[in-house]
Design a protein that fits this description.
single chain, 3 helices, globular
Length: about 80
Amino acid sequence: MDIKVLGTGCASCQTLDRRVREAVEQTDENASVEKIEDMQQIMEYGVMSMPALVVDGEVEVAGQAPSVKELADLLSG
């Protein structure tokens, strides 16, 4: 599983990154997590509000930082 956290470094972006990593640990998913802060790369995903979460090339979350439980459900579902 390829996970990307898109964000410019704001508090919400940092929160999403932390929660995603925690959710991956909880679910024991075999996943790589990458934080992308470069606006050029972020724009390639067509995301207009941050933070955003991309799982295997698909934008799953934009403009919010779901709870660890919600993220774990998303990643294991």
